[in-house]
Design a protein that fits this description.
The complex is a heterotetramer, with 2 copies of chain A (325 residues) and 2 copies of chain B (330 residues). Chain A is an alpha/beta fold. Chain A has 12 helices and 12 strands. Chain A has 2 domains: 170 residues, Rossmann fold (3-Layer(aba) Sandwich), CATH 3.40.50.970; 135 residues, Rossmann fold (3-Layer(aba) Sandwich). In chain A, helix 1 packs parallel to helix 7, helix 3 runs parallel beside helix 4 and helix 8 packs across helix 12. The longest helix of chain A is centred in the middle third of the chain and has 16 residues. The chains are: A alpha/beta (325), B alpha/beta (330). Chains in contact: A-B, A-C, A-D, B-C, B-D, C-D. Bound molecules: thiamine diphosphate (2 copies) and magnesium ion (2 copies). One thiamine diphosphate sits at the interface of chains D and A.
Chain lengths: 325, 330, 325, 330
């Protein structure tokens, strides 16, 4: 996925002079995320700027430049550092357009990295997308593979609204075919696997695990799961989710963020609002437990939802039988 | 100082004072629900600073932002409309007193978050620098805001990139109830410039001529690429923090002492003594401005409330910017 | 409610010397929230400290003092200013105990003010409890009246974990009988009105509105609603909610925060997980629309959920009939 | 400088160096998954600062925290245990390299958030002040951290309350790949003290004697109630930001130049030349420390992994503090 993001950035810089990027160690070093290599060499230090460790000013400068007519890209090296710039996201970027009556746009993209699995411990491993999705005014894009990442990032850069683009650290090394030419992907949910028995709704690094679980469910239990990658939490493309839930009557939601207050709750609530009638069992959620991300290898492996937990939830909902009331 | 310039600044100061007085009236009569943070006593600063600025020069403002807005040339009727929450207000009634922006005059917006606008100014200045523009940005904020992390990060960032931004700290002695001496352990806030290797200077903020002159120096400084400037404007918040403040934290004597340094009176005296402006002309200006303000207020009251359906409008721009993606040549 | 909170603070200061308080304008001025009057006069400026406008340092100082053995109370004048101190909440207060293996406690109370309705506009009117409830390690307490506020605050002050105590600005002037003597209220949900037909789950300022709606539902439609005040989002006392949902089979959740990603989603998800079988219709949510809080009076009135919207949702779920699948 | 004090500091420096070298070995052999940010080259600072401190004097530390931890007297085995993610580690394996705390030695904890520990130090100092204790707090952080808002807010707060806290900025020239000259526009970071009206001083951080002496001055300053001190320790990060860093942002020559100022060698020379310490004793100390470190590492490897069920433990303390509420007398 890293190369796909890098390609998108190169295309963007090459296509519009108003696009520039700021962030910590993004120039010569190529970024802590290693996604911005080659940019400073090609487009120069005016448009690719290393910053001090000043997240509030960095994100704020992005917002300010966006208001003033540029199309900045800000790299926030870990989503955990939202803590250090939250005012600029919550009270500035998200609210400016509405608060000023629709007269001021904020075409800003904040690229950042989420997720556990690499031993980075509690302060460098979080999945905070639910917090962002609760803030009206922020687009939240969270791709699950290289192909989607490139198309969604180019789309996000053309968006006239602030976008937080969340890259899962475990996906950077994952590859798939990515066309060299520019292309865009709309803010849509994507059915990654068709199936009739149960709907698995997921995003980010959990898409792969869900697909693997689906294969295993099929081969071992004969259960045919549909896997939908939400891809974008705001705006949420609900129709494919509802359509699928209507068809299967059984829904499992999978995300890596801890369960309580996670985006899975929102998805579950919306789906049962829409298709209550068709549900054959409760909507189940597979998510991390409600604790910070632990460091130790075995604890962290237990922390991140794995295939077996997905399979367990699917079989549970498949085996659910309405008791007579 | 050209006479005409001083008269023009005087006029702006009077306009601000009149606007704020009317805003207080509106608050008294419960016609605006907004907490009104008035600029009374600080008018020389906005007037003297903005006298240098064109509509292409940008500002960021604060919760105490009416003065900046007016000095940048805002339409008074639309301002009152916003205070009253009307659809013809600057934000269609969505923002209120603390959230007026006006891109047409280069006002990037007031801000309810103390220190919240300072990083925005840095970003705007960065955008000007990348565009190789000669324009510059002014960020207004209070003494209290200089204790925010955003102040520190912003001044540092502006310094290392040598951005064309002038930081105007209006030290009006108070942050709500807290005297600046209780929150800052140095004599002059302008000394904070030292921490960033930028130019800092303290100015008598109640004297519009000093403000104007030091701002001129600052403009030349940033325009010559020497990086940002921090100007501390020493002034005083004559009224309470907002209309309704009981002010149990200061004495009437203290306030009265400062009233003697009223920036409008000071300017008026100067215009009469040094420039021979007649008291007739002065009272004519005052009357004109009072009328302008009251007319605007009256007209604003005739504006309608926003449509209820407008509640969910204006959050997102649903259009996408038109960029033709160009393939990379290998 | 203001007097009740003030009383609790006086009792706390009077009972334990390790308790002290810092915040903006809390001493002579009595606080922007007007809850701390009399404290500095009685307990002195060493324990009641005005601070500069430095939310990160204020909350951080609270965390540091708590680690070092004190029991600080921090006043954050508006919950919206979470933006300015979020790292200390998200990455420090919440994670310290877990991250350090359980060896370090953070007995800190952050009192803050939430809510719309008084014309304070987008940056001073938010309801952000869902964000806090998604962060493992933070207690979230959100009372709906003076009596509960006093008892819950004293309980929170004895908690050895960080607590965010959220006071709705519209409740400060509301009065009810509050005993003068100290008392505590556990972290429990509270059934504020018994009823058999439908369960309304709510908290904070929406409790009163829900109770009013319940009366009206009873008198006008003969619908007997049970109203449960959650009071504490973490730890969540789920049993009364489930018990009631089991009994009525119909659930409406009401909160003032905007709907998407709000805590209502979590409540809905949990309840349907537990009592799917007993539900006679979808769980509905009444919440603010997904926009920032507008300034204009009429818009803000439309924004905050009112009695009519609660009644509408209740009647909708009462009229729901399962269609044959 | 007493000979014994210097020898003891030398020993601590060697211990830190050996610990870090072994940590790199563990990383090389993939035995720890933690990003190892080594303290190599900066040992004189932790050693010289902590030589003054008792277990009741407190520190806050950083992502590059092993040195502080050791200088405060931590148990090496439990440290290695933590790096390896074992149940006998300082955090039972939950924290890893960046998150070691040890209240028994006054270490309030390392921190993965740059600048995150500085406000905690201020709070701890406030708590000492309220308790009328003579103890004080040291907050360690890097050059990069001084560009964080938390640095600014914390120094200001400590200043106005005259808190007993010593801010130790370890200016090792880099924040990851970014040279300090690209992120800060002044010669000496200690000049930032000016902004808060507190004492600031720059010190040769590679010379443990200077560190020790200036720390002594700072301790006397804070203990006499004169408020906080900012000490900038000039040093250099000899290794990459973390083990694995390609270091494409600096030259080998630059690194070699600094290697000549190695704090351990410098101290060793001083011990030999000025204090007549024999090379036998020196190599004995080195051998002892190497052994201590390697033994600790070996023993740590024998610790077990945490129990899986421990995953959800330790988040909350389920007990409530015992306070008897007293009714108010009217
Ligand atoms: C981040 C933040 N903290 C606190 C407040 C509450 N508040 C509003 S105005 C104000 C005082 C601001 O003082 P100063 O910066 O000196 O500006 P002045 O009001 O004097 O113009 C405070 C504390 C806020 N709006 N934002
Ligand atoms: C708030 C925050 N921003 C960014 C980072 C990523 N990061 C980790 S260490 C580091 C460099 C720190 O530099 P400095 O403070 O000089 O300490 P040093 O590494 O040199 O010891 C950065 C940017 C972080 N951990 N926290
Ligand atoms: Mg002020
Ligand atoms: Mg450094």
């Amino acid at each position: 996925m890293r190369e796909a993001i890098n390609e998108a950035l190169h295309i963007a810089f090459n296509s519009d002079e108003n696009i520039f990027m700021i962030g910590e160690d993004i120039a010569t070093y190529g970024g802590q995320l290693r996604c911005s290599y080659g940019l400073v060499e090609r487009f120069g230090p005016e448009r690719v700027r290393d910053t001090p460790i000043s997240e509030m000013a960095i994100v704020g400068a992005g917002v300010g430049a966006a208001i003033a007519g540029k199309r900045p890209i800000v790299e926030l090296s870990y989503i955990d550092f939202l803590g250090s710039c939250f005012d600029q996201v919550l009270n500035q970027a998200a609210k400016i357009r509405y608060m000023y009556g629709g007269y001021v746009n904020v075409p800003l993209v904040i690229r950042t990295q989420c997720g556990a699995g690499l031993g980075n411990a509690a302060q460098h491993s979080q999945s905070l997308e639910a917090i962002l999705a609760h803030i009206p005014g922020i687009r939240v894009v969270i791709p699950s593979n290289a192909y989607d990442a490139k198309g969604l990032l180019l789309h996000a850069i053309r968006d006239n609204n602030p976008v937080v683009f969340i890259e899962h650290k475990a996906l950077y090394k994952k590859k798939c075919h990515v066309p060299e030419d520019p292309y865009e992907i709309d803010y849509t949910s994507d059915i990654k696997r068709k199936g009739d028995d149960v709907t698995i709704i997921t995003y980010s690094a959990m898409v792969d695990r869900s697909l693997q679980a689906a294969e295993q469910l099929n081969s071992e239990f004969g259960i045919d799961a549909e896997v939908i990658d939400v891809r974008v939490l705001e705006p949420l493309d609900l129709q494919p989710l509802i359509g699928s839930a209507q068809k299967t009557g059984r829904v499992v939601i999978v995300h890596e963020a801890c369960k309580k207050g996670g985006f899975g709750g929102e998805l579950a609530a919306q789906i049962q609002e829409h298709v209550f009638d068709r549900l054959k069992g409760p909507i189940l959620r597979v998510a991390a437990p409600d604790v910070p991300v632990p460091f130790a290898d075995n604890l962290e492996r237990q922390y991140v939802p794995d295939i077996s937990k997905i399979i367990e939830a699917v079989t549970e909902v498949m085996n659910f039988h309405r008791s007579e009331v | 100082m050209e006479k005409q310039t001083l008269i023009e600044m005087f006029r702006i100061m009077v306009r601000i004072r009149e606007f704020e007085s009317e805003a207080i009236e509106l608050a008294k009569r419960n016609e605006t629900r907004a907490a009104v943070h008035t600029y009374i006593g600080q008018e020389a600063i906005a007037a003297g600073v903005c006298a240098h600025m064109s509509n292409q020069d940008l500002i960021t403002s604060t919760h105490r932002g009416h003065g900046h807005c007016i000095a940048k040339g805002a339409d008074l009727e639309r301002m009152f409309g916003e205070l009253l929450g009307r659809d013809g207000g600057y934000c269609k009634g969505k923002g209120g007193s603390m959230h007026i922006a006006d891109l047409s005059t280069g006002n990037l917006g007031a801000n309810g978050i103390v220190g919240g606008g300072i990083p925005l100014a840095v970003g705007a200045a960065l955008s000007l620098k990348i565009s190789k523009s000669k324009n510059y940005v002014v960020s207004f904020f209070g003494d209290g805001a200089t204790n925010q992390g955003s102040f520190h990060e912003s001044l540092n960032l502006a310094s290392i990139w040598a951005l064309p931004v002038i930081f105007i700290c209006e030290n009006n002695e108070y942050a709500i109830s807290t005297n600046v001496s209780k929150s800052i352990n140095i004599e002059n806030i302008s000394e904070r410039a030292t921490a960033y290797g930028i130019l800092g200077k303290s100015v008598d903020g109640n004297n519009v001529v000093s403000v104007y002159d030091d701002m001129q120096m600052a403009v030349e400084h940033v325009q010559s690429g020497k990086g940002p400037v921090l100007l501390e404007m020493k002034t005083y918040r004559i009224k309470g923090h907002y209309f309704g403040d009981n002010q149990n934290y200061r004495t009437r004597e203290e306030v009265d002492l400062w009233k003697q340094k009223d920036p409008i009176n000071t300017c008026e005296t100067k215009l009469q003594n040094d420039y021979g402006l007649s008291s007739e002309i002065i009272s004519k200006i005052k009357k004109e401005e009072t009328k302008k303000v009251l007319d605007a207020s009256t007209r604003a009251k005739l504006m309608s409330e926003p449509e209820i359906d407008d509640l969910t409008e204006d959050l997102y721009d649903l259009s996408f910017h038109n960029i033709k993606w160009i393939s990379l040549q290998k």
